[in-house]
Amino acid sequence: MKYLLPFLVLLASVIGSLANIYINSDGWYTALIKSPLNPPSFIFGIVWPILYALMAFVSFKAANIIWKPFIFQLGLNAAWSWIFFFFHAPLLALVNISGLLFINQRILMTLKKESTLLYFLYLPYILWLSFAAFLNASIVFLN
Asked: What is the distance between the alpha carbons of residues 29 and 130, in angstroms, rounded to a whole number?
């Protein structure tokens, strides 16, 4: 499991990234009203690889204690981009990311009991998910 989880992080990042191809292909996303706090698109391309690297490291170090919820959250993580960008379903994506936040907060609390270092390495992912949920909710409510 120790080596499987980092591989699954890489796989989830590739699957999720494939959906991003559709961001500009039909103009749907660009036509949406977004929060004034929505960062420029290139920021996502910088932040997500860092978060996936942190997730891979944490999952490698804590595989024995987080593997079940971690695998489930990876599935939700990869599905979010498809739900939002390919299927154009921001409300369903908001439900998805809410589940992601719930599961990952539980993982974070498990990590806190295990290792302060792993807790602080995983925390940026939770913070970014929270911000992404805000951006997703903004699109739901503004459109």
From this structure: 20
